[in-house]
TrEMBL record:
Species per Swiss-Prot/TrEMBL record: Halosaccharopolyspora lacisalsi
Subunit text: Heterodimer of SbcC and SbcD.
Alphabetic keyword roster: Coiled coil, Exonuclease, Hydrolase, Nuclease
Source organism, top-level taxon: Bacteria
Residue ranges annotated for the Rad50/SbcC-type AAA domain, each copy included: 5-237
Region annotation Disordered: where it falls in the sequence: 393-412, 509-557, 576-595
Gene3D superfamilies found in the cross-reference section: P-loop containing nucleotide triphosphate hydrolases (3.40.50.300)
Listed name of the protein: Nuclease SbcCD subunit C
């Protein structure tokens, strides 16, 4: 990586536009940035870092304030850097987020962060030629080309001011944290955590298995009701228990069979006794039944006579009910005549039927004459209601006109308010695009935050595969080297067979052969060597491929980290929610533009509509008044006719109703008299039919027939009782005549109780034996099932215990315990190896700068109070031959050691990350603590750094350093901002 040109505007302390030509500065390979304290020397390095990664090193990145406070309002803030990486020249430009003055009005408006990448020369094959304009795309491309993230770049390319000695004097914890951050060894911590978590799970599972075994054995003890002797083998005891329970079950089965046979014999004897007892009982019951029926025979004959009389009386009862209905109808008709006569008020009810009919006709004629006046009376009511409606309508139209006048007065203010709201909606629509863009940007960042864990996992997998490929390649290379050595040995042995004493050697020409090579046991040919070479090349290709995959995964992970910066998913989610709320509010307000436009048009239309409506109301009021006056005259003229027609009644309709009601009452009386005469005739006919029916049924009279009446329930009871008597008699005689009871003596004594007692005793004994046998068999089966499960659990527990013991020991080793002799965790061991490489690289420079006196010594000894070691760093003083802590070095010596350590750390990090060749290096550190001789040594070391075309930039205000370097860039500060001047 070589820097060519840096441009910045309104950045840091630089209020204007400044340009740094690194090609001119680096012409001698070494240049100096100098100036007063606070002028902005380090700010130039911040500009380079910001252009590449969008952040600055050290504590300054926390402030995130990049714009110059003294820059003019029309001066933008941006940084542009042109550089060459991996043979491709590109230009990166970034604009930070800051507040700029509004172009119109007062106040500030936010300026969004921007980034762009342009290819000055051809881009890599797998990257687009048009470059990139998104912040995340620019960050991913830069990190991929450089092969390192921002923290590694700051440590390797920009050795930051004031941070050299921090790593030198850091304690074990701080040093481990920095090394882990630079070398990306967090995966080893995750490996140790995985071992600990896996051990915890396996321990829990082993405890559960042991508890399961104990529960099964306790269940066996519970079911068997026995326990092994102290010290007795559980497996042997379990086998003996199963054999004993089998014997007990077989003995119980034999006893059950014997008692079952005795029970069956006793139950057969009991069944025979019960059969005889049942026959004797049936004979006794049949004879007793016949005797009882003979005793009640007279009663049974009386039942039959009562049943016959009730049957003959049924036709008489039918005729009696008909005669009773005819009498009731005659009485009701006579009562109706009385009631109708009482209701005929004002009519002579003593007149005959024909006279009453003539009076009814005259009443109907009078009511018909009043029908026309009833119609006019109804019209009179309608017209009076119409007069009232017209009056109400006139009053309502007057009120409506007053309301419309009030609405018309308030319309101008409402129209003005709607116009103001419409302007606000249009303004919100103009701001909506900016708010939506912010939501889209935050949405992309939230998605990147969610993809970060998967990228981290992919990186870990790729690193694991890379280590395996390295081991495989190393093994193949060692195998190839071994074959080559064996082949050379074989070739030497072949030449040795052609040697004779006194004859010259075809290789060296000597005539003496003191120690000819002997033939090898397993010679190696060219084909073997070629095959091994092919395998080694294939392994190397896989190794390179795996490293490429690691780089790709690392770049993908770092791109996400670079895009996210210090933002966490929760913070981005909250910010996205806030931006979404703001956007939705603007969208909601902008969406009101169309409704408000329609509303304004509607209000303007309402003004015209109200004027038209008021004119229409005035016309309606005038028409209603004219109609009211005409209708009032008609109502007055009709009133006199209706007064003559109603007479003494309230209305014509009431008088007509009275006439019709009187006519209806007379008609009712006439109808009642006719019905009464018909009912009298039918009653006489039914009484004669009743007397005739009683004589035909054989009764002395109607009263005798009615006395023989029986209810349906009584007739059913008589029929059922007589049927039961016949059934009982037939059943008793059939039983005595049956073949089954022939020869059975009713006086026989059976002796059933003794047989029942014997059968009960035998049955209880058999049931007890069966229960005993079932219990023995169930206990045998339960124990057999539990024993099988217990033996299977024992078999599963053994391998699990062995596997856990192995895992437990391995986890202790990984975490620095157990058989780990160094008591170092896996993480500490890996970091110690990296620190050892750094110490070796730093020692090379420290010995030169200290004229061979000091060298770094890596120590893996344990720390104080039993702290685990592996990250100790001391210096070996050749003057005394003693190892000293780094904190005992003087100020100048500490600077030399810190600078050497920083350079060594940069070399190892660059080699570890597989990054590009770094042709530009910045050292931002004070040199004021060095004397002249030591400064010479340091400058000589820096001369070595620029070997091979590398450019080294120093940042210092020390005068002696300025005098030693020919190419200089001076930083000057003033009240309006800092400026740059090239000196040579």
């Amino acid at each position: 990586m070589r820097l060519h040109r840096l441009e910045l505007s309104g950045f840091g302390p630089y209020s204007g536009h400044e340009v740094v030509d690194f090609d001119a500065l680096g012409s001698d390979g070494l240049f100096l940035l100098h100036g007063d304290t606070g002028a902005g020397k380090t700010a130039l390095l911040d500009a380079v870092a910001f252009a590449l990664y969008g952040k600055v090193p050290g504590a300054r990145k926390e402030a995130k304030r990049f714009r110059c406070d003294t820059a003019a309002s029309d001066t933008p803030t941006w940084v542009s850097l042109e550089l060459t990486v991996q043979g491709h020249r590109l230009r990166v430009q970034r604009t930070p987020e800051y507040q700029r003055p509004k172009r119109s009005g007062s106040g500030y408006t936010p300026q969004k962060a921007k980034a762009s990448l342009i290819w000055v020369s051809g881009p890599p094959e797998d990257l687009p030629s048009e470059g990139a304009t998104r912040i995340d795309e620019v960050g991913r491309t830069v990190q991929r080309l450089l092969g390192m993230n921002a923290d590694q770049f700051f440590q390797v390319v920009m050795l930051p001011q004031g941070e050299f000695a921090q790593f030198l004097h850091a304690d074990t914890g701080d040093r481990a944290e920095l090394l882990e951050k630079l070398f990306g060894t967090q995966r080893f911590t995750r490996v140790a955590e995985w071992f600990s978590g896996h051990r915890k799970q396996r321990r829990q599972r082993l405890s559960e298995q042991r508890a399961h075994v104990d529960q099964l054995f306790a269940r066996v003890l519970q079911v068997a009701g026995a326990e092994p002797e102290d010290g007795e083998d559980r497996a042997s005891w379990l086998e003996d228990l199963e054999k004993r329970l089998t014997r007990e079950s077989e003995e119980a089965d034999a006893e059950q069979e014997r008692l079952r046979r005795e029970r069956d014999e006793a139950e057969r004897a009991l069944a025979a006794r019960r059969d005889l007892a049942d026959k004797v009982r049936r004979v006794r019951l049949s004879r007793a039944e016949l005797s009882e029926l003979d005793e009640h025979r007279a009663e049974h004959e009386a039942w039959r006579a009562e049943q016959d009389a009730a049957t003959r009386a049924m036709p008489v009862l039918t005729a009696h009910r008909a005669a009773r209905r005819a009498t009731e109808e005659h009485e009701r008709a006579a009562e109706e005549v009385t009631v109708a006569s009482a209701h005929c008020v004002g009519v002579d009810t003593e007149e005959g039927t024909d006279e009453l009919r003539a009076a009814s006709s005259h009443l109907h004629e009078q009511a018909g004459a009043l029908a026309q006046l009833v119609t006019e009376s109804e019209q009179q009511d309608d017209d009076r209601r119409r007069l009232s409606e017209l009056a109400d309508r006139i009053e309502a139209d007057r009120s409506s006109d007053a309301e419309l006048a009030e609405q018309q007065d308030g319309l101008p203010a409402r129209i003005e308010t709607t116009r103001r709201e419409l302007d606000e909606a249009k303004h919100a629509a103009a701001r909506l695009d900016a708010a939506s863009g912010r939501v889209d940007e935050l949405t992309a960042l939230v998605e990147d935050a969610r993809r970060l864990p998967a990228a981290r996992e992919e990186l870990t997998t790729a690193e694991t595969r890379a280590r395996e490929a390295v081991d495989e390649h190393q093994s193949a290379r060692e195998h190839l080297q071994n074959l080559r050595e064996r082949r050379l040995a074989g070739m030497a042995a072949e030449l040795a067979t052609t040697l004779d004493g006194g004859r010259p050697c075809p290789v060296c020409g000597s005539a003496e052969h003191p120690d000819p090579r002997r033939a090898v046991d397993e010679p190696v040919g060219a084909e073997d060597e070629e095959r091994a070479r092919a395998e080694e090349q294939a392994a190397q290709a896989r190794r390179e491929q795996s490293h490429t995959e690691v780089t790709r995964a690392q770049q993908a992970h770092d791109r996400l980290r670079e895009r996210l910066g210090e933002c966490a998913e929760s913070g981005l989610t909250a910010e996205l929610s806030e931006a979404t709320t703001q956007r939705d509010a603007l969208r909601e307000q902008a969406e009101r533009e169309r409704p408000l436009t329609d509303r304004l048009a509607e209000l303007e239309s309402d003004s015209e509509r109200l004027t038209t409506r008021r004119g229409e109301l005035a016309t309606r009021v005038a028409a209603a008044r004219s109609e009211h006056a005409n209708l009032a005259g008609t109502v007055e003229e009709r009133h006199s006719r209706l007064e003559r027609g109603r007479g003494e009644f309230d209305s014509v309709a009431r008088r007509r109703e009275h006439l019709l009601d009187t006519a209806a009452r007379v008609d009712r009386l006439v109808t009642a008299r006719i019905a009464r005469d018909d009912a009298r005739r039918r009653n006489d006919e039914q009484q004669a039919a009743l007397a005739e029916a009683a004589a035909e049924a054989g009764f002395d009279g109607v009263d005798a027939a009615l006395a023989a009446e029986r209810g349906e329930q009584r007739r059913a009871e008589l029929a059922e009782a007589l049927a039961e008597v016949e059934r009982r008699e037939a059943a008793a005689r059939a039983a005595l005549a049956s073949e089954e009871l022939a020869g059975v003596d009713a006086e026989t004594e059976v002796g059933l109780d003794e047989a029942a007692e014997a059968a009960t005793t035998a049955r209880e004994a058999a049931e007890q034996a069966a229960a005993t046998a079932r219990g023995a068999e169930q206990r045998r089966r339960d124990v057999a099932e539990l024993a099988e499960r217990l033996r299977r659990a024992w078999a599963e527990l053994g391998p699990e215990q062995s596997a856990f013991a192995e895992l437990d020991a391995l986890t202790d080793v990984v975490n620095g315990g157990g058989q780990n002799a160094r008591k170092m965790s896996l993480r500490s061991y890996v970091l110690a190896a990296r620190l050892e490489e750094v110490a070796a690289a730093a020692t090379h420079r420290l010995r030169r700068m200290s004229e061979g006196r000091y060298s770094f010594v890596h120590s893996d000894a344990a720390g104080p109070h039993g702290a685990r070691g592996g990250l100790g760093l001391d210096v070996l003083d050749d003057y005394s031959g003693q190892t000293r802590p780094t904190k005992t070095l003087s100020g100048g010596e500490s600077f030399l050691a810190s600078l050497s350590l920083a350079l060594g750390l940069a070399d190892v990090v660059a080699a570890e990350t597989g990054g590009v060749l770094l042709d530009t290096l910045f050292i931002d550190e004070g040199f004021g603590t060095l004397d002249a001789d030591t400064l010479d040594l340091v400058m000589n070391t820096l001369d070595d750094l620029r070997a091979g075309g590398r450019v080294v930039g120093l940042v210092s205000h020390v005068e002696e350093v300025r005098q030693r370097i020919g190419v200089r860039l001076r930083v000057s500060k003033s009240r309006t901002g800092s400026t740059l001047t090239l000196e040579s």
